Amino acid sequence: MNRLTNRLVAASAGLAACGLILTGCGSGQISQVADQEAAVNGMSANAKDIALRNVHLMASQTGDFLQPGAVVPLVFVAANNALDTDDKLVSITSDFGTVALSGDGAIPAGQALVVAPKGQAEAMGSATPAAAAVTLTKPITNGLSYPFTFTFDKAGSTTVAVPISAGEIAG
């Protein structure tokens, strides 16, 4: 019986040592998924309780640049993470164009405002669809990001580097 107990203790100690060794192999390493971003076209930003997600300009570029005077949709989702405070999108500004907002812009607590071209916001489940169209005042091109400042009634302002999405607009 003594020999069996010694073998069980030795086996248990060996398994525990293997567990510690295998667990220690990952210590001090940078996790591969710790810094991954969502696979979406746009950028993300936060203004207090408002989370801006998938912010991008939706434009098909046929030349070197999209020229001044072109009108391109600005697409994003603004989620209100507050539990009891409603907010409202007041304005969007940029040095690269004039942004025209349509729709209410209200973002009730715990809900999201989907801003997309007509028909797409409804398809994404937005109860109060809104749209934002940018009339360019300077030329822009794919591969670069352009600063846009989003101003909310209660959350204040935040500036986002907005890329151009080369995706097609579904009709």
Description of the molecule:
The model has no long low-confidence stretch (mean pLDDT 83). Helices cover 16% and strands 39% of the residues. The longest helix has 23 residues, at 2-24. It is α+β, with helices and mostly antiparallel strands and 171 residues long. Strands 1, 2, 3, 4, 5, 6, 7, 8, 9 and 10 form a 10-stranded mixed β-sheet that branches. It contains 2 helices and 10 strands.
The total strand number stands at 10
Terminal residue distance: 80 Å
Please give the share of residues in helix: 10-25%
Which regions are unreliable across 5 or more consecutive residues at pLDDT < 50?
Answer: none
From the spread of the alpha carbons, the general shape counts as elongated
User: What is the averaged pLDDT score?
Assistant: 83
State which percent range the strand residues make up.
Answer: 35-45%
List SSEs in N-to-C order. HEEEEEEEHEEE
Q: C-alpha Rg, in Å? A: 25 Å
Helices and strands in order:
Layout: H1 2-24, E1 43-47, E2 50-58, E3 71-80, E4 87-93, E5 97-102, E6 106-107, E7 112-115, H2 120-123, E8 131-136, E9 145-152, E10 156-165
Parallel strand pairs: 2-10
Antiparallel strand pairs: 1-2, 2-3, 3-7, 3-8, 4-6, 4-9, 5-8, 9-10
